[in-house]
């Protein structure tokens, strides 16, 4: 159906590119010799192409078409990898206005016209939501609506991925996605176990918004979300909103704290302990709210702040969790490599701490 539109104002953009979902092989990064034991624990999570039989498109009650798992998919399994069929660099943003709609439309049409008939047909089969009062009488208007309803932010460009576009929205999705600049593909992966026959979902809007705010954003796509997170009663809905608000606030505070070099004086140690406590709290909140999209970030913060308090056991456990989730998205990203180094350091310090304790007991 519709895919999240990550544009600042308008998204109707394109440029021809041959879509390829399965042809690119996996290229895991080359770890150093001392990294191999740690990395081997997570080798099943490297970003490799999944077989096409992982999913199929079929009607989804109340949603039109949807993508469903044809077999049980374990956490970290690649659902699909797809290059953009249409990709365009947007025109400059006009201050106070956004993208020039006419220029955007011309780029879309020009790119679309250069595609093969088969690819044009696939794109035109996608959902198009027309705003109230918006003309839908011309092919050009329909093409623009399709892009507005289905395009993704793709690095510095905007891209359309016809197969990924069939994945429906949930405010508690079971799949995550990432744009892999190196491969030129958007990667969709299971962020928890997905059962055979279960619909695969991702998110079209920021998940830390309240239910009301999420529904307002989803009006752009022409539907009301009826996912598990939105069907709850008022009391549970208020609790969910509060958890998501707290997650957003805590992540912001931790992001600011991580950018400041830790001080070794009394004030610095006190601050580190306070932030370590908050990092553990945000881990609990994202787990309670079942938001795997934020797991890697929460675990990373917990690892960093617990390492600053020299709580090496907890820091190691959080770091390994963070590494596991980062490897699901992209095992070769710099962020993943940095997390691997942090995990190694935490484990090394924990091992040293254990040896010192053992040595101390032996000398008593």
Automatic annotation (TrEMBL):
Transmembrane segments: none annotated. Residues 53-205 form the SET domain. The keyword Transport does not apply. Residues 1-19 form the signal peptide. It holds the Pfam family SET. SUPFAM superfamilies: SET domain. The keyword Signal applies. CDD domains: SET_SMYD. InterPro entries: SET_dom (IPR001214), SET_dom_sf (IPR046341), SET_domain_protein (IPR053185). Coiled coil: none annotated. Keywords: Signal. This is SET domain-containing protein.
